[in-house]
Design brief:
The complex is a heterodimer of chains A (about 500) and B (about 270). Chain A has about 500 residues and is an all-alpha fold. Among the domains of chain A are: about 180 residues, Up-down Bundle (Cytochrome C Oxidase, Chain A), CATH 1.20.210.10; about 150 residues, no CATH class. Chain A is built from 16 helices and no strands. Chain B folds into 2 domains: about 150 residues, Orthogonal Bundle (Cytochrome Bc1 Complex, Chain D, domain 2); about 70 residues, no CATH class. Chain B has 14 helices and 3 strands. Chain B has a 3-stranded antiparallel beta sheet with strand order 2-1-3. The longest helix of chain B is centred in the first third of the chain and has 28 residues. The mean pLDDT of chain B is about 90. Classes of the chains: A mainly alpha (about 500), B mainly alpha (about 270). At the A-B interface, α3, α6, α7, α8 and α9 of A face α1, α6 and α7 of B.
Chain lengths: ~500, ~270
């Protein structure tokens, strides 16, 4: 097989020498969807605690506190990691013309990773969690000693991330192209940052740094996990999928490189903004605030670039469901980042810190942006992986509208609740008065959660039926160059 | 290929290193590096009144969790300090594992009237101890801040609240941690019927004696001891003693309460002026 042929789109389905290992991609996506659903279900059940309607009262391992660990950790490590890895196993060979380092290694990582995510959840349900947000993964040792009290999940995840890097960086290093496309910049850096961030956040605050400097690194970890792992993989894949679907190159390559460098420089400096007014030195807090506002400028360049790419293809929003997911996510991305540059100021922090505003913001980022992008990518890829046309396009629409409106309600509701909480708090309202005032908002939040879960259930049913039924997917759509025809049928 | 290792790797490692320098190493160097981290033994040296009271009120659970040496009535100071240290560490581990820190902060800020509501604001030195590794600032306040919780409420309040938060704080959305409670047999004394009539309370009202025993025999033996030690002038009170099934905090619950009652009571030694 010549190198020129290796990048032909046809080659993706060359049975003898597949460039992309479709089984591996498919199973990662199945695992991702499974954990997305369990994480959302965990979040929904946890929300019932706020209504005093909790179904599992008195059962230690299903109690609210422990289920909340499962919610956030499965979203990050079960859903997003699996989905991103699946997408990268698809995109990286396509972008470099090279297969992964080793197929068997890929399967090994797949099985070990699922075991680690399950062990994380089981450990947390058994009460072995750690006290760093998103670093709650059990360390396996009693803090400060080397007495083993559980599986050392943290350590195994670090080994797994290094193996994953080997598998993914090898084709990039051996790329048949002289220049690297911007996606590969993001993916390479993101892979390295994932390892560095994970090691930093799961060792320093728990093993060496107590008190405020440990708090600073914990803040760094929370932020870097979003900014240096989820964001670069997310944007890297957007730079890959959007031009493919819209049948045109990205609007400005210069802007895309500016966006990469500014993310690399400013994003990691933001961490301390999670703990403003804390005992971390004020100079460090001011630095984090300025870096956060700088990120907003970066974000604007990236979002402008993508809307520039969309220019003249607006009908894709109506016709292509993946594009609809991607661009809705981008609007929400711009919203969260704009919100960030305000809420990082000391003025906003005084009111909103420790209130429901924060989970509102977190849901907008993790669900509204990154989960939306991943769901869009799955919608685009699933027929190509299974070889079957979608079972029901109508259900795809239901999935989009239920999840999108559910998220919007949840975001607006929690933001409003945060303001009520913050101002009542500052005005010295008695604690129980504040809690009582928040209860109506918490009912709305649970309702919004139910909408999202219903939408995702439609999606899962649709994925299942697509895999089962027998209407074949017409691969010729991928070879169509005319954008109108390609978007309408893709 | 030749561009890959140099420039992207420089971006990845270089920018990460700069961030570690500015957001981790620098704050560490100007605060925590100046003072060694206090050990658990340091922070547990000063035994809280509430911890001593937990030992008196729940002797059986106390002995089961923290050992005979500390449970003895005349336990030496060192044994009590060691038990206190163990209780704080265990209590902190449970506080983390149950996710208490998701809804209760340990972070009083110098704004929004927080000092008036929650009290003292911690300095970096007060947070530089082994029980704040990792630091437990928390994420969100569904319940109040616990920075200065120690001594604010009685042990009894904490026991009732941990079992069913609605019993002490109507409207609370906190879960009850009933799995940190055990069933057993306890000695009770029924109220004097004459006094009950005068005071207008239910004559079946009974007050518990310390000690929740695993078997009925142990509880009966304890009843006899109490009866034998009653002051002769109130000997008739012995007839109103009885044993019945009861629920009380187990050793883990005592550790959680010991930890909560410790919060905000420890301060690093101030440097002596020359």
């Amino acid at each position: 097989m010549s190198e020129a042929a290796a990048i032909s789109i046809d080659d993706v389905r060359d049975e003898a020498h597949p460039l992309v290992d479709k089984d591996l991609v498919r199973w990662h996506l199945i695992a991702a969807v499974f954990f997305m659903f369990t994480a959302m279900l965990g979040g929904f059940i946890a929300s019932l605690q706020f209504l005093n309607e909790y179904p599992f009262n008195g059962i230690s391992w299903l109690s609210y506190g422990r289920l909340r660990f499962l919610h956030t950790n499965e979203v990050a490590f079960g859903f997003l990691v699996n989905s991103f890895v699946g997408m990268l196993y698809y995109a990286v060979p396509r972008l470099t013309g090279r297969r992964l380092f080793n197929r068997t290694l890929g399967w090994l990582i797949f099985f070990v990773w699922q075991a680690l995510v399950l062990l994380t959840s089981i450990g947390q349900l058994l009460g072995k969690a750690q006290a760093v947000e998103w670093g709650e993964t059990p360390t396996g040792f009693r803090p400060g000693t080397f007495e083993l009290n559980y599986v050392p999940v943290d350590f195994l995840i670090e080994v797994g991330a290094v193996l994953l890097a080997v598998n993914l960086l090898y084709p990039i290093a051996k790329s048949i192209h002289k220049r690297l496309y911007v996606s590969l910049w993001y993916i390479t850096a993101g892979m390295i940052w994932l390892i560095l961030t994970y090691v930093m956040g799961n060792t320093l605050p728990e093993w060496t740094l107590a008190g405020s400097s440990g708090g600073a690194t914990a803040g760094l970890y929370i932020h870097d996990l979003v900014g240096l792992f989820v964001t670069p993989f997310g944007w890297g894949l957007m730079y890959f999928f959007v031009p493919i679907i819209l049948r045109k190159p990205i609007w400005s390559h210069a802007l895309s490189v500016i966006g990469f460098w500014a993310l690399a420089f400013f994003y990691p400096l933001n961490g301390v903004h999670h703990f403003l007014y804390s005992s971390i030195p004020m100079s460090v807090q001011y630095g984090a605030i300025i870096a956060t506002i700088a990120v907003e400028i970066v974000v604007t360049t990236v979002v402008v670039n993508f809307f520039g790419t969309m220019w003249g293809r607006g009908y894709a929003l109506r016709q292509s469901i993946p594009i609809r997911w991607f661009y809705t996510g981008m609007v929400f991305y711009f919203t969260t980042c704009l919100q960030c540059s305000f809420q990082t100021t000391l003025t906003f922090q005084e009111i909103i810190h420790f209130t429901d505003w924060v989970p509102g913001h977190a849901h907008l980022v993790m669900l509204g942006v990154f989960a939306f992008w991943n769901m869009g990518m799955i919608v685009w890829l699933w027929p190509r992986l299974t070889g079957h046309e979608w079972y029901s396009r109508r259900l795809l629409g239901w999935h989009y509208w239920l999840v999108m409106l559910g998220l919007l309600i949840m975001f607006l509701d929690l933001t409003a609740a945060g303001l009520v909480h913050g101002f009542m708090f500052k005005n010295m309202a008695p604690w129980m008065r504040i809690v009582d005032s928040l209860k109506p908002f918490w009912w709305f939040r649970t309702f919004a959660g139910a909408m999202i879960i219903t939408g995702v259930s439609c999606f899962i049913y649709n994925l299942w039926m697509t895999a089962k039924h027998d209407k074949p997917y017409d691969y010729r759509v991928d070879l169509v160059h005319d954008p109108k025809e390609a978007i309408a049928n893709g | 290929m030749d561009r890959f290792p140099s420039i992207v790797l420089a971006a990845a490692f270089g920018c990460f290193a700069i961030s570690m320098l500015l957001s981790a190493l620098y704050p560490w160097a100007i605060t925590d590096a100046k003072q060694p981290e206090a050990s658990i033994a340091d922070v547990a040296a000063n035994i809280t009144e509430e911890f001593a009271e937990l030992k008196r009120a729940y002797p059986v659970s106390f002995r089961q969790k923290l050992g005979d040496a500390a449970a003895a009535a005349d336990a030496p100071l060192e044994a009590m300090q060691a038990a206190h240290a163990e209780a704080l560490q265990r209590g902190r581990d449970l506080y983390i594992g149950e996710g208490c820190w998701h809804c209760h902060s340990q972070f009083v800020r110098p704004v929004a009237n927080e000092e008036a509501r929650f009290g003292h604001i911690r300095t970096p030195a007060e947070e530089n101890n082994a029980l704040q590794r990792p630091v437990l600032w928390g994420t969100r306040r569904v319940g109040p801040d616990l920075t200065n919780e120690g001594g604010k409420r009685s042990n009894d309040w904490h026991v009732a609240h941990l079992h069913n938060p609605r019993s002490t704080s109507p409207g609370s959305v906190m879960p009850g941690y009933t799995w940190y409670f055990r069933e057993g047999f306890q000695v009770f004394r029924r109220i004097d019927p004459n006094k009950a009539e005068v005071a207008g309370i239910d004559p079946d009202t009974a007050y518990p004696y310390p000690g929740l025993y695993d078997t009925e025999e142990e509880a009966r033996a304890a009843l006899e001891t109490i009866k034998a030690n009653l002051d002769p002038t109130v000997a008739e009170e012995g007839d109103r003693l009885f044993v019945r099934e009861a629920v009380g905090p187990d050793g883990d619950a005592l550790c959680i309460i010991a930890y909560l009652q410790w919060l905000g009571t420890w301060f690093p030694e101030k440097p002596t002026e020359e």
